[in-house]
Fold each of these.
Amino acid sequence: MRRLYPFHLYIFVVSILIVRADDDSKRRYLVSDDNDSGITRLKPKIQIAVPVHPYSKAKILPFTLSAIESQEYPKERIKVFIYFDLYKRILDDLTHLNGHRDSQLDERYVRNLLSYEVITAWITANKKKYKDIQLIIRYLDDSDEALQDSVDYWTEPRFRRIIELKTLAMRDSINNWADYLFLIDSDVVLTINKTLTRLVDARKPLIAPLLYSLNTYSNFWAGMNEKGYYVRTDDYYPILEGHKLGTFKVPMIHSCILMDLNIEEAGHLTFDNSLMSDVPYDDIITFAISAKRAGIPMYLMNEVWGYMMLPTRTMNLSTLDQDLTDLRLEAIDDKHTFPISPSLVHFTNRLNPLGDKLGVDEVYVINLKRRPERLKSMLEKFNVLGIDAQVVTATDGKNISEKELEVLGVKPMPDYLDPFHKRPITFGEIGCFLSHYRVWQEMVSKNYERVIVFEDDVQFERHFRSQWFKRLKALDNLPSSSQPDFVYLGRKPLASKEEKLAPIDGFAIPEYSYWTIGYMISNQAASFMLRSEPLKNILPIDEFLPIMFSKHPRTDWMRYFSIAPINAWSVHPLLISPTHYVGDEQYISDTEQTDKIKVSNSDLSRSKHNEL
Ligand SMILES: *[C@@H]1O[C@H](CO)[C@@H](O)[C@H](O)[C@H]1NC(C)=O
Ligand SMILES: *[C@@H]1O[C@H](CO)[C@@H](O)[C@H](O)[C@H]1NC(C)=O
Ligand SMILES: *[C@@H]1O[C@H](CO)[C@@H](O)[C@H](O)[C@H]1NC(C)=O
Ligand SMILES: *[C@@H]1O[C@H](CO)[C@@H](O)[C@H](O)[C@H]1NC(C)=O
């Protein structure tokens, strides 16, 4: 038996729901383009409804609520309704949290409590700002099916519950007060604070902002078949990728919807499949079909957007946490930040404990001083990933004097020409080499066994941390004689010949490759590289490394260096890629743009030629 009732919590008073239809509930909201002087027209009244899953959204919920709070819309015109399920055990006996239960079960109780704490902290901080905030709690017994079933998230009771909550939210807001209902899932984070205003101003009966997720998933469909299922159409990607900006009529929006309640047909909208014929057992499809049958069009606005979690069928909390990390990384790459309000910041700090060195002695990130935005973005990503990195200020090729090069004994390798541009090495490339070189010097002088070196424009692949640690563990299980001295985390393979896989899973033996965006290097490899005296015959670092690995097609270039071949591997598949590729709009290469070195009598002088 499930009971459903609003609950009075200790900290704040939940007002009784007064079910009273507004006299003017059928009146259309007057748009404010009339010119009556001296009159201030109030913004439409919005009821925001947030159904919260009992435990699976605990970690993203602080961002979801902060994003709602950050919306630039008069809060006195907003009522917030939060619908939440609380396990009785949490309230009855908190000490059970430390009891002897199966760990997965424990974690779900812990997160149920955490969600509750997040919600109540947010309400306490905000209840005076909004017209009203209500928390509608249902108690769950231990016997709740959602808790019993350890694997499948989308159990039938779970679906039923979501349908119930959304139906309740709609009924509450229609009966209560609002011109609009803003129904937002508890794993949606709006990163643009004008979203609510823009949606209201669009004056559409049903409208959603675009929500990005991982992969190409989002909160709208561009095509739907007769039965109400997804159909891929050519309209999807142009809208998703913003090739065209605006408001588009689409057959399906979900997860974050603004509903105009002052339209007669709104009464026909439903999430409940049992009220409709011929619809699948699915709340969002039911809703879209009910809108279609009632003749209410749906719109998607891609000028404002946010992020949402990828839906999962299984409820693996560790996977969910990693997905949240990846979603935050994606937002950082888009130059967006998940909002976090002061009242909730301590909950998110728990996501990023101190940070570590990825299992090696040091993690370096090389950054040019004149690219602070890249460093900021990298440090944000490290923070989200829990990496404690040391920043190395790069040697700036733009600013390097010939005198300094002379002191360092830097001389270009005589027969080097860039294979694509047929040009000598640039000052930028020299600066880049010297930066890595200084890191190798430091690690050798500090006697570090292994370090990881990143450049500052790195994008991390899905589940980076757990993938990396899986690889590192596999390496550590090898006898030290067969461990590689150098491991690419990201690179651009150039060789046409097929590469061999390494003797253990997750690695390949790299052939000729470019890029130095991220690698792990051993003390031994760094010492070899330093001893080969590369500055005396300098060439771009991503040409130098393959020579050290005896993998460079120009075997004649090996004669310039004293080589003890370094055993290099690469993670496979790669774990990082550059944020920008050549040809991208935002691509700025710090090594390509600087002046070339003219190779005249082994002299170093700036050529006048400028590449870009
Ligand atoms: C309102 O007034 C402005 C300036 O006084 C004018 O440009 C605009 O056209 C008017 N709008 C309407 C709907 O009359
Ligand atoms: C809304 O976002 C803009 C741009 O990010 C920012 O400048 C502004 O301060 C924000 N407004 C509020 C009220 O936070
Ligand atoms: C969750 O997934 C991770 C790998 O992503 C796995 O190691 C772990 O055992 C899974 N946990 C459960 C309870 O299935
Ligand atoms: C360039 O070098 C000079 C002298 O070494 C230094 O004072 C200046 O800060 C440098 N500029 C940049 C942009 O690094």
Amino acid sequence: MGVRASTVDRMGRERKVGVYRVPRAVSSAAPTMDADEFRKVGHEAVEWMAHYLERGHEGAPVTSPFPPGHTLARLPPSPPERGEPLEKLFEDFQKVIVPGLTHWNDRRFFGYFPCNNSYPSVLAEMLTAAVGVNAFSWVTSPAATELELRVMDWLGQMLGLPWKGCLQDTASTGTFAALLAARERMGHANGGGVRQGGDGALTAYVSEEAHSSGLKAARMAGLGDAFVRVVPVTDDLAMDPHTLGAAMDADRAAGLRPCFVMATVGTTSTTAVDPVRAIAECCRRHGAWLHVDAALAGTAAVLPEMRWLMDGVELADSFLFNPHKWMFTNFDCSAFFVRDPAALKAALALSPEYLRGPHDGAVENLRDWGPQLGRRFRALKLWFVLRSYGVEGVRARVRLHLAMARRFASLVREDGRFALREEPRLNTVCFALDTDERTEALHRAINATGEAFVTHTRARGRYLVRASFGQTQAEDVDVDRLWSVVQAALATLPPSRGTSRSAPA
Ligand SMILES: *Cc1c(COP(=O)(O)O)cnc(C)c1O
């Protein structure tokens, strides 16, 4: 195969100057895949994906039935010395890997929280991999940065939050970035370092029900567990703002500096919602940074009837939610908003000579908005999703998921053998039997069927089974299917000894 090269002489005539030969694989190198093989197996892979996205792991269990080490034992301990054909790899993917997965996007998955995806998202992810750009600076891929800023504006409008933002990999990273910005605003830690332990130590506040990423961020930022206050929750499992205010006052009186509060809108355990407005008032009094973690629930705020979730967020300093949970954009994609980007950049911007570009004064370099340098081009899949679904399409699906949760809750409530923790305001339903032992046994029995996957939590000491709704392909009929699995699982348990039934507090 050759490329014909030519030049134009002074008379304007084209002259052949020779043929540049594209070298074939050098004979000593092992053969690697070429474009033709990529096309062939690629088409098969798309077929496989289309089937999987539509049908899930149908006909096989929704979670891996294997004991620890099963997959490991099927993988050679050393890498292959010679390259293998892609068809063989694709075959092994289906035989060795897929059966050992947890099928998060199967309609029978109700565990943890949704981590959903969609056709446009998966397609865009393939394109992202193909262009393979690194979007750390504007100049390293101008369209990637500009698209990211634009889709963040779109998301902000969808949630009624007119702030700038960027896409982080996870909520954990956004929370860490927020805490670093708070730390810098309070104590100029970049210059002198963090001095904890004595007068002026920085303190952080999370609720008992907050996600562990709050504590992890405090550890990574060098605050130390001793300076993280775990604020008790009220009966609705939301942070008690009076106790928060009292704790901040006490810390201030003791010579410490309240620096960072993380409020949660939709806790991981039970989707409880902290009173952001009241918490913001405590933060204002102490000049503390308020970060709102709405990793799961933020998506629901695209619905006008759920906009109450955003109440008080305009008084916060940062806010995040994960389109990779409930907005049909495959992992990873966490939308991180900040009221004052300059405060974030004060903590995180660095510009060594080799990263400087000609337009630095006029553009955003998104490496300055988070801990990492290298950044994936996540905006593309979000753009594909938002354009393909439209805001109305996103709303319709999320509304369906909320309705599914409500209907499942009503089935639980109407069956006298269960206790419903509360009427779900979001997509997650927590329920129990009369004793923790029986609830735990029910949980195990449900999952043992392979026909549904649910997870558990504890609230106020009680063991609860949780069912979280939000699969892209899910329909109302999946509520009935889950309910019959729960019924069948319950039928396998020994009958309850007592007749007393107490609702979990
Ligand atoms: C899922 C979740 C997180 C963690 O999200 P990552 O993106 O995995 O870091 C944090 N907070 C809440 C409330 C969550 O539901």
